[in-house]
Design goal:
alpha+beta, 8 strands
Amino acid sequence: MSALGRPTRLCAALIFTPSSRFRGFLPIFSPLSSPVHSSPAADSALARHADELASWLDTFAATQRQRGKAYQREGRVRALRITGTRALAKVQGTELYSVRFDHDAAHGWASQCTCSVEIHCKHAYAAGLALLDRLREAPAEASPDTPAPAASESLTAHVQSALGRPLKRSELTWLRRLAEAHAVLLQGGQLDPYAISWLLPPSHRHFAYGYNEQPWCDGWWERDQPPATPLELWPFLAVALQRRELPLPEFLLPLTDLPAAKARIATREGALALRSWTQHFEQLQSELPGAVAPDALPRPVRHELRLRLNDRAWRWETRTTALTLWEELHPETLRQWLSDSRQLTLLFD
């Protein structure tokens, strides 16, 4: 009941168990009739990233953008809330879905929804439009931008020395993301599409998720011997990106020996293919029956044929050996023998 004694419709607290797709998301929303508005300070913290949010929303598929725009115009986005570098919202679709947005200097924008699509869905696009409107109305924060997260000193120093110039902020950020992708590889044993997506421009990041494709750089090195450093990993990634027709960072092109990397990968793929075919033929060989000696093979049936005039009529006769008597051969049997003579040895007298 409200303070005036009127009933108020509440949205129940949304709590997910550890098995939920959206772990760690435990928002509690206010009544739907009175959406929660963030404080001006909270809005201004993200306001300077509004243009980046707009660019990121443009990477959604055209169908999701069209449907999400319709949802936003119909007022389906509710309870938009901003807390620090995170935004939460509810979107009314087939059911009431929860959408979360996160932003950080290293990775930019990311979202997750409780619908079956989970990422880059129409609900996230609708909530993203509402968030964009909110941020563009908020005053920009007066404090300067947070410095780009630095990669390891050795990686930065090596690239700066090779290029002969200081690195730009965007280049430092990219090297940090490369170092993060390499760290995930060392920890999990394989490359993570999410980490690789941040090495791409915003308009290409969704191409990193190829659910029906092989994993990135699959089998290009022994599992217990991955590239030891981010710069050793980079040539493999460069070839993988080029095969998918995705852009490479221009500042690293002078340091990237693509022909050598392609030759190394081709040699590795050839060795893997040879190993696979060898195993395949060995398996087939083990499943085949053992070889049979020539003497053990059944001998083909041998028939002698002759055409004999008897009682003013011609008739076919046959025998199997020279010691057996001639027997009359029915014309239909002869016709079958002649149609499949590969199974018989016929000697005509």
